[in-house]
Specification:
The chain is an alpha/beta fold and about 250 residues long. The protein folds into two domains: about 5-35 and about 170-245, Rossmann fold (3-Layer(aba) Sandwich); about 40-165, Rossmann fold (3-Layer(aba) Sandwich), CATH 3.40.50.10090. Helix content is about 35%, strand content about 20%. The protein has helices spanning about 20-25, 45-50, 65-75, 95-100, 115-125, 145-150, 185-195, 210-215, 235-245, and strands at about 5-10, 30-35, 35-40, 60, 85-90, 110, 130-135, 155-165, 180, 205, 225. The strands form two sheets. The protein has a six-stranded mixed sheet with strand order 3-8-7-4-5-6. Helix 1 packs parallel to helix 9 and helix 7 (about 185-195) packs parallel to helix 8. It is elongated. The N and C termini lie close together (about 5 Å).
Length: about 250
């Protein structure tokens, strides 16, 4: 079966040079984009019930732009003034750069990992005396508390935002050759929005082991699991898969 139509469960890329556009052009594909999940704020009054005092902490661990936005939103909602002595441990340079929206950037306050949480742990271990707050969503990567526990770091996990299914009721049916997912939440959204969905000949691609597991756990057939050793990106893995399918009779 040749692949001609693809639905990617993420917002459309804003960059004209996106590898998705290159892929569509190269193989004459119709690629649509639609976020299957969205982020909702945890309200201040609900957060108060958790009895977590933000100002009891001396450092904030920031793993995404969402974490940055919702941490500072919550502080504003609770009318807290974050002290200038607060330290920020950011998973990557892009997240650290984004923090500048909210604070005056000083090197002594902002610490940066290379890209993964494991990289950031190397930095955190050098500052074991801090008391860390980890703003997260309701579906946090398991490795984060595991690595913090292993390092005997004093920290608090706090849910500042939730990941929920988008309303996809305007899509009458998923008439695509391939569906592409990046999180377990996307699979949950598929089941919620399309309870009568039958996979049949539709290919399903998943990025990362937790997404792949969610596909299988929901009784769906996983046709492409990215990243691949020879293709670290989803678009690279898709290109190899499309070529392979095109050769089949």
């Amino acid at each position: 079966m040749k692949i001609k139509t693809i639905l990617v469960s993420q917002p459309a890329p804003t960059d004209e040079k996106s590898p998705y556009h290159e892929l569509a052009k190269k193989f004459n594909l119709k690629i649509d984009f639609r976020p299957f999940i969205k982020v909702e704020a945890v309200q201040g009054q609900d957060f108060r019930q958790e009895r977590i005092n933000i100002l009891d902490h001396t450092a904030i661990v920031l793993t995404s732009r969402n974490a940055v936005d919702h941490f500072f939103r919550m502080c504003k909602e609770l009318r807290l003034t974050v002290p200038e002595t607060m330290k920020y441990f950011c998973i990557s340079e892009s997240v650290a750069y984004y923090v500048q929206k909210y604070i005056v950037y000083r090197k002594r306050k902002v610490f940066i990992g290379k890209q993964s949480f494991g990289d950031l742990m190397d930095v955190i271990k050098k500052h074991k005396d801090e008391t860390y707050l980890v703003p997260c969503s309701d579906i946090q990567k398991g490795e984060i508390p595991e690595l913090l526990d292993k390092a005997n770091v004093k920290y608090t996990n706090a849910v500042f935002y939730r990941t929920v299914a988008s309303d996809l009721s305007d899509i009458k049916e998923l008439s695509y050759d391939m569906l592409v997912f990046f999180s377990p939440g996307g699979i949950e959204s598929l089941k919620k929005n399309f309870p009568k969905f039958k996979q049949n000949g539709v290919f399903i691609a998943a990025f990362g082991p937790t997404t792949a597991k969610a596909v299988r756990d929901n009784g769906l057939r996983l046709d492409l699991e990215a990243p691949l050793p020879e293709a670290p990106s989803m678009t690279g893995a898709m290109e190899l898969f499309i070529k392979r399918e095109a050769k089949k009779k």
